[in-house]
Amino acid sequence: MKTTPRFEKVIKKLYKAFHNNTLNPECCKQCAVGNILDNTDSWKHLSDFHGSITLNYVGKVNQNLGRKFNGYTPCELLQIEATFLKACGYELPLHFKNKKPENPCDKDTLFKGLSEVITLLCKLDNIPNVMDYQKLFKPKTELHPVIF
């Protein structure tokens, strides 16, 4: 399957974070976007709340200037993070009073989050969803019996 260079880079980073236990939804440097941006938290200044998809003034300026961070616009980064958090079981935006998973770093929880993020990344890059396993189980050709 043909993918894009930015997709390949991000998948490698997220795969590495997942398997090295350096993926943490509640840490701005170790969440999905934190890992995409090389474990920096500068992206958190694009919005007023962790998990929000609404750009603040700084985010809007960067978006309108066409700025990209490791290939992603501010809107795309916020969308990626919100997708990750929501799929992990968080009520958005992140707040101590809002619903959250019992064990945020549980591998099953993180896998659900990453699966949704990968689906979104495929959509953003206009490539087939690499997480769509249903294609593996479809018959290559359907044979119809000949009735005489």
Strand fraction: under 5%
| Low-confidence runs | none
Question: How many domains?
Answer: 1
Number of helical segments with 4 or more residues: 5
Shape: globular
Please tell me the overall pLDDT.
90
Give the topology string: H per helix, E per strand.
HHHHH
Percent range for helical residues?
A: 40-55%
End-to-end separation:
42 Å
* Structural class determined from secondary elements: mainly alpha
Secondary structure tally: strands: 0
Largest sheet entry:
none
Q: What Rg do the Cα atoms give?
A: 18 Å
Summed up, what is this model?
The protein is an all-alpha fold and 148 residues long.
Keywords, separated by commas or semicolons:
single chain, 148 residues, mainly alpha, 5 helices, 0% strand, globular
Structural commentary:
About 40% of the residues lie in helices and about 0% in strands. It is an all-alpha fold and about 150 residues long. Helix 1 packs antiparallel against helix 5. The chain has one domain.
